[in-house]
Amino acid sequence: MLPRLSGMVSVLLLAGSLLWPGRAAEARMPVQIEGEAPRDYYQFLFLYDYTGAPGQSDWTLHPFYSSYESEEKAYEFNTFLYPIFYQHGTNYWKKWTFLYLFTGEDRYREKSKQDSDIFLAPLFYWGYGNTEKEQYFSIFPIYGRIRNKLGWSEIGFFAFPLYTTWSHRRYRAYSILWPLIMWGGDGRVRSDFRFLPFYSRKLHRGSYDYRTALWPIFQWGSAGLDKKDPRHHFMFFPFYARKWSDSGDLSSHSILYPFSLVAWGYDRKREASEFRALWFIYQDIEGKNPYIDKFVFFPFYASYKFGNPDLEYQKTMDFYLLLAGRLTTNSNSIRSEYDFFIPFYYNHDRYYTRDNREAGSLKIWPLFHYYDDPAQGTGWQTISLWPFPDDTMDRIWGPLYSVVEWRRETNGDKYFGMLFRLYSQRWNEQENHVFFAGFDYHNAPRRTEFLLLGGLLGYSHIPDEDGEMSHYLNLFWFKL
């Protein structure tokens, strides 16, 4: 049916977002040192590396732990066996997640903790703070009270589904043996009643009125009652379903809903039409307000276009056998092209029109990974074992299996490493740092050092406390 068009569009957008590290990824805070300031480096094989810059520090004990801090942004990003656990935040908020299931969020004001949320959805929720509204506790399905989740101000339950209640503003609902028996309302406009499968009604006076009898067999109702052209629907499940408007500008039909042996419809106001067959196997949808062109012949091919060239925003998606495809975005802030063949090939090119800068990345799994981004620098490495694009994963785990790696930092420093960082070198026009099998050599203005294990044994020619150049013997990390 035509009203499902928006739902199918949402599914396509979600599928694309899982593969497309687009604008959402760009909005994240930095997780490694950026900027053009000089940097200090230290590295020990593939196990440990440290980078420092004015106001920033970044160190990693591969692959167990990593920490990045930015004083300017008051931001920190920490990981433990990423992606098993990571935590990030500022002076005003902190978020953490364990296996993306057990998560927590803290909010602060003037450096004093205000409220926190910890949850393992949907089994465990715990919130605590300075006010009663911020305190709640839930162990599903035994007992719980949850606040500001799932679109409701408060949700409570006991021996779910035996008893449940939820509310938002004036509206409050109650349920026994959810979802079979339910009643609720706000005492004025909204009123809900459900005693399944016999009868149910969902009413918002002046807006919508939905009813069922012997659910799901008979369903009917109206929406947009406060508009000039209300819409109505009727369903005799599963044989026939229809939706129409008073003016006749909207009409759709479906045979064997929701599996849709065949479905067709139109919406004259949106200049849209739809034809579907065999559920989701074949779909052909067109619309001009907004512009939408969608064609699906599952699983062989799918195409989706949103927005015509006259609009500020256009998005296209093409999928082949679900594994290969091309995604593009064109807006007033970014132009992006993303090609993929899961899990072997990913190529993402971006142009940020407001900043007039380009960025790109290429991954050929498991052989090669390349990136070029003004915020991160330029680099490549072989091998790259993680089968999906993830810069943090490659940065933390990459040294354990990379044969050769090279990069140019945003400040112009260059890095080269080989054989799991058995040998590596960082250099610029004034400095040269070499690391080999636990030995490191540093040659920079006012610094010359030969060290074993960072100072267990070695020689240093560096400034003393008065700034005068002095010679030192390093023994057990003491300078003599």
Describe this structure in words.
With 480 residues, the protein is mainly β. 5% of the residues lie in helices and 56% in strands. The chain has a 44-stranded antiparallel beta sheet, covered by helices on one side.
* CA distance, first residue to last residue: 82 Å
Summarize model confidence as the mean pLDDT.
Answer: 88
Content of β-strand: over 45%
Please give the largest β-sheet.
Answer: 44 strands, antiparallel
Radius of gyration: 30 Å
Strand pairing plus helix content: what structural class? mainly beta
Low-pLDDT parts are: 1-27
> Share of helix among residues?
under 10%
How many individual helices? 3
Q: How many strand segments?
A: 44
The shape, in one word, is: elongated
Key attributes of the depicted protein:
480 residues; mainly beta; 44-stranded antiparallel β-sheet; 3 helices; 44 strands; disordered N terminus
Q: Gist?
A:
The chain is mainly beta. The protein contains three helices and 44 strands. It starts with a helix and ends with a strand.
SSE order and pairing:
Blueprint: H1 5-19, H2 23-26, E1 40-44, E2 48-53, E3 56-61, E4 65-70, E5 75-80, E6 85-89, E7 93-98, E8 102-109, E9 112-120, E10 124-129, E11 136-139, E12 143-149, E13 152-158, E14 163-168, E15 171-176, E16 181-185, E17 190-195, E18 199-204, E19 208-213, E20 218-223, E21 231-236, E22 240-245, E23 250-255, E24 262-267, E25 272-277, E26 282-288, E27 291-297, E28 301-306, E29 314-320, E30 324-330, E31 334-341, E32 345-352, E33 357-364, E34 368-373, E35 377-382, H3 391-397, E36 404-408, E37 414-418, E38 423-427, E39 432-436, E40 439-444, E41 447-452, E42 457-463, E43 469-475, E44 478-479
Antiparallel strand pairs: 1-2, 2-3, 3-4, 4-5, 5-6, 6-7, 7-8, 8-9, 9-10, 10-11, 11-12, 12-13, 13-14, 14-15, 15-16, 16-17, 17-18, 18-19, 19-20, 20-21, 21-22, 22-23, 23-24, 24-25, 25-26, 26-27, 27-28, 28-29, 29-30, 30-31, 31-32, 32-33, 33-34, 34-35, 35-36, 36-37, 37-38, 38-39, 39-40, 40-41, ...
